[in-house]
Design goal:
By secondary structure, the protein is an alpha+beta fold. The strands form two sheets. A four-stranded mixed β-sheet has the order 4-3-5-6. Strands 1-2 form a two-stranded antiparallel sheet.
Length: 268
């Protein structure tokens, strides 16, 4: 018997808009505070120092204005969902790295590049949270609001990268974190469908996944639980299952639940 498809989660346009603008501002302010020494620090991402990371952030912020400037797709409905975007990112990893290398080499002032991208984004953000508009994404037509939610994922993941690389905390907007946690959890549930194991990331998300006996009542026998930032790091390969369980930031109950380790990361 096939596993029934989950109903896609919805995101409120006003909340998405406010969260994107807030997280962009936190990134922008953090970029201007960095010292020359911090700019040269490694990020843990292969071949990227902080300058490469800032160049990537500027491009990700500018991605919505760029897509909105392109001709609308001829399709009448989307073919790329949020989970498909998450699970497909590994296919374009080489291209993303190439862009970061080129952008970092092309200009010295990456903070200024982020300023420019932020201004462009703010001018189109209301269009970017429309639910009735399709954008011509490389993975297929995508709803504008869904693509804008992906900007939250990019911003939160790389804000945390910036914090860890520089030692200077970048603020995280609560709604931006909540959306990122939910997008990544839903992608895991789509990658490993089933109802045998419950993944909990309080207070933002809980999803069931992994094939096996379905839990119907009481406390699930197979439970994985962690905090939001730890989940973001696990889901994106910034942290390992072994390290997180050893430090107590990831709690695993039940033998089957450990099988989730084989499905991570979901975003490359």
């Amino acid at each position: 018997m096939s596993t029934p498809r989950r109903k896609p989660r919805s995101y409120h346009p006003d909340r998405v808009r406010d969260a994107v603008l807030a997280q962009v501002e936190f990134v922008r302010l953090a970029a201007h505070e960095l010292t020359p020494q911090q700019l040269g620090r490694p990020t843990g991402l292969p071949g990227w120092d902080v300058r490469h990371l800032l160049a990537h952030l500027a491009r990700q912020i500018d991605a919505l204005p760029q897509l909105l400037a392109e001709p609308a797709p001829r399709a009448s409905r989307p073919s790329c969902t949020l989970s498909q975007w998450v699970l497909g990112t590994g296919e374009i990893a080489t291209k993303i790295d190439s862009w970061a290398q080129e952008d970092a080499a092309a200009r010295d002032d990456q903070a200024a590049a982020i300023d420019t991208a932020a201004e462009e984004l703010e001018s189109v953000i209301d269009t970017g949270v429309r639910e009735d508009l399709l954008l011509p994404h490389v993975f297929g037509p995508m709803r504008a609001i869904d693509f804008t939610v992906t900007r939250l994922v990019e911003l939160v993941v790389h804000s945390d990268d910036l914090t860890r690389a520089t030692g200077s905390p970048v603020r995280l907007d609560r709604m931006a974190v909540a959306s990122t946690v939910r997008v990544l959890a839903d992608a895991l549930a789509e990658k490993a469908p089933g109802f045998s194991t419950e993944l909990r990331i309080p207070p933002f998300a809980a999803v069931q996944c992994l094939a096996g006996p379905r839990h119907t009542r009481g406390t699930p026998g197979q439970v994985v639980e962690t905090d939001p930032v730890s989940w973001v790091r696990l889901a994106t390969g910034r942290a390992t299952w072994k390290t997180m369980t050893a430090t107590g930031r990831l709690k695993v109950g039940g033998e089957r639940a450990a099988g989730l380790a084989d499905e991570l990361p979901v975003l490359h």
